[in-house]
């Protein structure tokens, strides 16, 4: 049986998919980041399952045993406290090990704080960068702000409620007018989304916040330049095709000259 990587709700327990519920019912073992949190989900949906902890403090020790059970044909489901295991959560080590052993891995998609925050932020983006939890040290955070300044798309990050004021203050130093959105308690009863420039957000959050925090930094001026460059590349392909070149050859030439993705240029020309 494959290792089933199951996405679980980021807040509202009703957001779990039917497919994940079926897998949890059928599993011989459910690996959990926190068994107490997972039991709340299981009880909410009337599921009786054998659970075992699998988190960053014990995954190195338990991975080999889990692989043995998978090889023996047991049905094992992997969940984290919220969202998809392996994305800034325990599970990546086990998934990589299973793949390395030639064992089957299947992913049951579902809720994600990253995409939820990105959409509710209201920013129009076709690319984004997820950086996990913001650095604790001010120097590292300043370095991240410099990287963000050069990135044309949106940036999504997690932060703790207690560190949020300090994080926003540092980001606002380097990117004061960059738009942002602080997303708090997504999908929960007290969900709140606060939008504004990073300077405005820093002045708004001067005290520790409450609940789970996802921060979205909107696209910078580089996004407009990148969009203009992409459009120019598409026009160049169209002109070459009109002049008699094949679409594939036109996309290849423009890609080599501009650095734009060849396959995307070809698709856009159809």
Keywords for this entry:
single chain; about 270 residues; alpha/beta; 5-stranded mixed β-sheet; 10 strands
Summarize the SSE layout with pairings:
Elements: E1 3-6, H1 18-26, E2 29-32, H2 35-44, E3 51-53, H3 59-71, E4 76-78, H4 92-100, E5 105-108, H5 113-120, E6 128-133, H6 138-150, E7 154-159, H7 164-174, E8 179-184, E9 192-197, H8 198-204, E10 213-217, H9 221-242, H10 247-258, H11 262-269
Parallel strand pairs: 1-4, 1-5, 2-3, 2-4, 6-7
Antiparallel strand pairs: 7-10, 8-9, 8-10
Helix pairs in contact: 3-4, 6-7, 7-8, 9-10, 9-11, 10-11
Give the tally of β-strands: 10
Percent range for β-strand residues: 15-25%
What Rg, in angstroms, do the CA atoms define? 22 Å
Span of the ends, CA to CA: 42 Å
Structural class: alpha/beta
Average pLDDT rating: 92
Question: How do the strands of the widest beta sheet line up side by side?
Answer: 3-2-4-1-5
Silhouette? globular
State the helicity in percent bands: 40-55%
Q: What letter string, H or E per element, gives the SSE order? A: EHEHEHEHEHEHEHEEHEHHH
Please give the largest β-sheet: 5 strands, parallel
How many helices does DSSP assign? 11
| Low-confidence region ranges | none
